Amino acid sequence: MRRPEARPALAGTRGASPPPPVSTPAFFPELRGMGSGRTLKFALCEVLQFAGLCAPLFVVMQRFAGVAAKVKASARPHGDGATAYWLIVASSIAYVTSTALLVWVPMKYMVFVKNKFLDGRRKWRPVALVYVILSTLPCFAFLVASSKVQLNNNMKHDAFTELPVSLVLFSLICVDLVERIRHCRLTGQANDGERDAHIPSSVLTHVEQVTPVAPAVPGQPGPAPQHNDGNPSGADGTAGDPGGPPSVSGLSSRSASTAAGRSSQCAHGGPPRSLCACDPRADVFVDSFMFWMDTVEMVRVAGLPGVYYSGWVFPVYIFSFLSCLRVVAMPQSPLLSSLGVALQDFPFFFVRVALVAFFGFVTPVLYLMKNLLVCLAFVYFNFMTRLRVFNTERMFF
């Protein structure tokens, strides 16, 4: 007997199956639940960086336009300074528009879309380099040009007090912060994968195994200290001496175990846990501002009327801009120490000595000693300790 064919269930009947869910197209990731937050964070970061690019240029060039209008009005009593003012303002708008369309947007496209275009961008930051060239350099140039224009016309109209520090360098710090924190999530607790090279973290990530040392028994030879390479001898080929100074690996193991003990103490409940709170996303804000403190102090000196209306404004702003180029390197790049000494501490020391000699204590002596000690420590511990006369370990063998 032939079985009757099953009829398809009509719409609205009890046995009707629900319609299949409509899948979101793959080319609209921002509509997904997981991608909407990332898209919002990406848009927020891009808006902040573009605002940091435009705001200093508009404000500095508008103030420079005011100075140019005052100079033209004083040179020609019946002249109109509004023409020069609006011409400079229009030039600033044209400059920002052209650089944004011809340089900033194509560079962003190459960085985020064409990943193979900049294979080595994990060692340096092209966005920071382009920002320093397009925004910080023109702002410093117009500040120096304004000083030169006022000196040539025997005027002291505007010294741009606090403007370079509060706006130009703060925008640079904000761009640096966005570049360092955009790779981690902004909500919830930080994951272990977010502790990358962009965020400095004091959390222990690698703990070496410490070999226990048994007490020496009379009449029995003690165990030889073991190293990572399995050689019982010391690093220089001599036999290990239990009574000698600890090696570098021993010191690192001891510091690692101490850090592990501190973290285990903070793992318990109670008030100590709230006092031991530490998040790398919060530490990056402190690290970014501390990174620029020396440059901020140098630029602040240039805003003083005695220094601004003199020829010393040129070396101050020139070396301050060179110190801003340190932002191109990654926060944990091995070249950052050398760049800091070559572009900041070494030239800042001589500039501060000259400023103190000509103008008095316009800059604190603390920063002068900081530049001197950093240069001496860098040269001594990296070069002079390699000499035989400074190698104190060989004096006892």
From TrEMBL:
It comes from the Eukaryota. The keyword Phosphoprotein does not apply. Residues 1-22, 213-255 are annotated as: Disordered. The chain crosses the membrane at residues 42-64, 84-105, 126-147, 159-178, 307-329, 349-381. Keywords: Membrane, Transmembrane, Transmembrane helix. Residues 246-255 have a biased composition (Low complexity). InterPro entries: Uncharacterised_FAM23-like_TM. This is Transmembrane protein 236.
